User: Fold these one by one.
Assistant:
Number 1:
Amino acid sequence: MEKTLTGTTALVTGAGSGLGQATALRLAADGSRVAVTELPHLQERAEATATMIREQHGVDALALSLDVTDLANITSCVAEVAAFGDGRLDLLVNNAGMNVLQPAFDVTEEAWDRVIAVNLKGVFFVAQAAGRVMRDQTPNGGCIVNIGSQFSFVGYPGRTAYAASKSGVIGITRMLCVEWAEHNIRVNAICPTFVDTPLTRPFFEDQDFKQDALRRIPLGRLATPDEVAAGIAYLASPGAAMVTGHSLMMDGGWTAI
Ligand SMILES: NC(=O)c1ccc[n+]([C@@H]2O[C@H](COP(=O)([O-])OP(=O)(O)OC[C@H]3O[C@@H](n4cnc5c(N)ncnc54)[C@H](O)[C@@H]3O)[C@@H](O)[C@H]2O)c1
């Protein structure tokens, strides 16, 4: 049976670990050839993900160096992905992200600028570069999935810059949905609760924090990277052909309370 993404080319940013790696592997399992990126000094992680894709799923994979705050790097990287896809780029997962935990009274300009540069400016300009390829290819069109957060919608201490960036990601998602629908480009967001990844694992060693977080999740546990990747794979699939401008909560019910 043909897989849902056979014949497509995908780009997943920040795919050397955590959610990005799980997503890249899931899209490959669904038949997509996948370009994965990592920061220049973490390039061996992108190579490792590409090797896993080839060995586990038998599809082509390409590892590239990308700092999403560097516009020239974005331009050259997306051009390489389009060449890898024989001129096509069908799917972008804007996954690269970071956080600096600081109480609002103590937020520094440096931390604010860094979080906004990676999580908001980076998301937009990678989408712009990928969207241009999707607009100009024949047949035109594609799918972009941005990674928001439950903190795009609800408050929690210590995450002002992160929440500002992830709320902005929802705004970008809606605006690009409206502007790019005529080019057959769908743009959606995934908004997870805490996911068990290298980013969050150290925080959950604090048992008070862990109990507080779990108490707020009706399903009573963290999300897994594979669960979030399944949501992304759904939005990327032909089954979601009529879904655009949507933010899919994958929060175990946190925002329903
Ligand atoms: N883990 C969670 O609980 C959680 C919850 C909601 C949303 N998210 C979001 O999911 C995404 C993935 O997070 P994760 O938990 O897998 O974390 P992670 O730290 O494992 O992965 C983030 C990746 O982004 C890369 N990255 C950081 N700065 C970059 C830059 N300037 N340019 C390019 N790549 C860069 C990192 O090297 C890393 O590979 C992020 O956008 C994060 O905000 C995570």
Note: Strands lie at 9-12, 33-38, 61-65, 91-94, 142-147, 185-192, 247-250.
Number 2:
Amino acid sequence: MKTVFINCSPKKRFCASAYFLFLQRLFTGGKKVTEKLRTQADHDRVLAQLRDAQAVVFGVPLYVDGIPSHVLRFLEKMEIFCRENGLRLSVYCVANNGFIEGRQNEPLMQCFEHFCRRADLTWGGGVGIGGGVMLNVSRILFFVDVALLAVNTVLSVANTGNFFPKDAWISFGQSAALLLYFNLGVLFFIARMGHHIRKGTDAGKRYTRILIPSFVFILFADIFFIIISLFEGGIFRGWLAKKEYGKS
Ligand SMILES: Cc1cc2nc3c(=O)[nH]c(=O)nc-3n(C[C@H](O)[C@H](O)[C@H](O)COP(=O)(O)O)c2cc1C
């Protein structure tokens, strides 16, 4: 059985969709192919992969409560392609959004459901994930933790000859456990959908989110976006800048 994973984020790197598709791949058996869908130049390459596939998993970011427009253009082509080639694929979706509630992906899931009906494909269900940006940051933090542990181990060996700095390992374990906890809902529902992809059965629609209370999420999201906006050219830049209409 061949499953094609389509990363639909227009970002070149560090996208949340890549992270969730990576997890979905771990829980899916058979032959696996991952493709990136960013521009029209990708259409033919991705469609060619669908020819001998049994299942396709879309990793999609939620844009304005719906499917990003470049993905809609692809779905229009895919509908024709599947009809012309008599393809009977099962379609699954891992959607993620920036706000905390995964249920905000429901309209996007409905679009995929309607697409399947129209293109005569089998809708296999999906997982909608809230707090996608923050969960994506959590995987980056994990690698930072690993790097810190490596540095601490090297320093410990250099200073005392001890290859097992206990405090560094305890601190790493605590941090890794916390990051794992944030991701538990995602891991559970993605593992569950992997089971259905392997069997070719209907996974239904499931919604989850980063496992932290909403008020903590809002606090960290505010801090995160202030830092990002500083890096992007200064806080309130967009609000206070003089608008010049008609110029791009
Ligand atoms: C143009 C645009 C529209 C967005 N609309 C929404 C939205 O309606 N609701 C939401 O929760 N997040 C929204 N987001 C946030 C993305 O869904 C979020 O950043 C997601 O993690 C991006 O996934 P990616 O890194 O795979 O591209 C929007 C982001 C952009 C750039």
Note: The chain has a mean pLDDT of 94.
